[in-house]
Amino acid sequence: MSNYGEGGFHADDHQDQNSSQRVFRENCLKPVTIKQINDSVSANNDNEFSINGVDIAQVEFVGVIRRVDGERESSIDLTIEDGTGSLVFKKWTDSAQPHQEVVEHYSAMAEKWVRVCGSIKMFQDRKTITNPRIKLVANYNQVTNHFLRAIAVYADAQGLTANGGSGGQKSLFVSENDDSAGPGSGQFRNRLLDFLRANAPSMAEGVPTRYIAESMGVAFDVVEAEAELLRDDGILYNGTDDNTWMLVEQY
Q1: Which segments does the entry list as coiled coil (predicted)?
Q2: Same domain, 59 and 99
Q3: Quick check: is 73 in a domain?
Q4: Whole-angstrom Cα distance, residue 169 to residue 223?
């Protein structure tokens, strides 16, 4: 029996492509809440966690730094809460930078919103975030945007529609086919992807968010929000830092 499906494509190749795309999506940053991190489960107790039935490699969450403990010379303990729960994790200090400088750096962030990216692991019988990257939230709209993205990812993982599935209620999320120019709209998404296709080949370290914003005549926050949505969809990934972007090859 032939292994070729409709359209002349080899069925196994198509399955391999779908499998690779699924793995890439699982390895992308997932916007979550701290409660979801605390409720995550692991089949092997240590390394591979899942949230709402979806395997997670990297997570992103926002929260307020409530406590900075720098008593140990090799690390500092950070306590962050986001309204759904709290989480304590370590930020290991670099021997090249004085410990007290690191403590002062994060102490200056106390009672402020930050964005954290990293991996969920078990450490001393509790969940923690390893290799955390911590960045101050510049605009509270980024907090709202994060929680909306977390809702969208949860709904997608559960097979729910963005509008709640019934009753004809208006969606919280803009349709990809919408012709408006804001983040999440089909028109703006296509413009951004076209810009990245044209510029990414000449920028090996990634296309900077600010360069995109200035070139397209769009606010920095708008570009950042749309790029993060595309990253969550497995279409973009970060270059050398959180403010540079690259296209996945097939796009």
Answers
A1: none
A2: yes
A3: yes
A4: 28
Q: How confident is the model at residue 78, as a pLDDT?
A: 95
Q: Is the same domain home to 127 and 221? A: no
Lowest mean pLDDT among 96-110, 160-174, 192-206: 160-174
> How many independent structural domains does the chain possess?
2
Report, in angstroms and rounded to the nearest whole number, the Rg of the chain calculated over CA atoms.
20
pTM above 0.85, yes or no: no
- Domain contains 218: yes
Question: What domain range is 191 assigned to?
Answer: 186-247
Strands (E), 29-174: 29-31, 41-42, 49-51, 54-56, 58-69, 75-81, 86-92, 113-123, 126-136
147/34 same-domain check? yes
Q: Give the pLDDT confidence score for residue 88 in this predicted structure.
A: 94
For 32, the token pair is: 């979550």
Residues 6+ apart with CB under 8 A from 85: 33, 34, 35, 37, 38
- On average, the pLDDT of the chain sits at 78
**Backbone phi and psi for residue 122, each to the nearest 5 degrees, phi listed first:** -100, 135
202 shares a domain with 117:
no
Distances from the Cα of 241 to the Cα of 38, 205, 216, 247, angstroms: 27, 9, 21, 14
Q: How many whole angstroms from its chain centre is CA 181?
A: 22
> What are the C-alpha distances in Å from 28 to residues 58, 66, 229?
6, 28, 11
For 178, the token pair is 């919408």
Rank 134-143, 171-180, 204-213 by mean pLDDT and report only the highest: 204-213
Q: Is residue 122 part of a domain?
A: yes
177 φ, ψ (degrees, to nearest 5):
-90, 0
**Residue pLDDT, tens place only, 221-245:** 889 888 888 887 778 888 888 889 9
Is residue 34 within 8 Å of 86, Cβ to Cβ? yes
